[in-house]
Amino acid sequence: MDAQRHWENIYGKKAADAVSWYRPHLETSLELIERAAPEFSASIIDIGGGESTLVDDLLARGYGNISVLDISQTAVDVNKRRLGSASEHVRWLVADITKANLESCTYDVWHDRAVFHFLTGSEERLAYVRQVAKAVKPGGHVILSTFGPDGPTKCSGLDVVRYDAESLHREFGVRFRLLGHSEELHRTPFDTIQQFLYCFCRVE
User: Residues 89-98: what's their mean pLDDT?
Assistant: First the structure.
């Protein structure tokens, strides 16, 4: 099964709050986005935004230039229905991030919680980094969250790659200046704990 069919199947069978990575609000992500983009006009893209409520919270705070990309049309449709008429103020992109046709130097903030760690092949990861380098403006920020060193080795039936700050930053290279990192213990809807790593970078 290819990646798109896999995720359409996952989102088609499970409710938004019945997947392990679900949080009612992505507090850490919001804090970092507000730090990176104090101006509400900032262009923000949420990679793998799926059914996440991050877009709701960004709109509520006054951000008006938001894009959400996900490989699953089903997940995007769930978000649109939840937002109602507010969804008209969001740019929705259904694509595989390693193959998406993104415009150059477009985004002030690139946010990804729990996509990059699914890229187990070196060519996939290289394609992803190329997308970031192309699409984020010089001086823009990248917020990336993956499973940490003590996180799960599989998720949704797929293998993942776990990272510490050094190994994650190494994937991106010298154009990305690491400004900070933190670990978060995420309590899943099933009352288990998953370790997430957050890295906060600036594109030089």
Answer: 98
Tokens 């008006």 -> residue: 64
E strand or H helix at 139: strand 136-147
Phi then psi for residue 33, to 5 deg, are -65, -45
pLDDT of the residue at 177: 97
Cα–Cα distances (Å) from 26 to 13, 22, 54, in that order, read 23, 9, 6
DSSP H stretches of helix in 104-173: 122-135, 165-172
CA 128 to chain centre: 12
Tell which CATH classification among 3.60.10.10, 3.40.50.150, 3.20.20.10, 3.40.640.10 matches the domain 3-203: 3.40.50.150
H or E stretch covering 36? helix 27-36
3-state secondary structure of 143: strand
pTM higher than 0.85 for the full model? yes
pLDDT at 1 over 80: no
For residue range 17-28, what is the model confidence (pLDDT) as tens digits? 889 999 999 999
84: CB partners within 8 A, 6+ apart: none
Give residue-wise pLDDT tens across range 188-197. Answer: 999 999 999 9
Give the tens place of pLDDT for each residue, 44-60: 999 999 899 999 999 99
CA 21 to chain CA mean position, Å = 11
Q: What is the DSSP letter of 7?
A: H
Tokens of 28: 């850490």
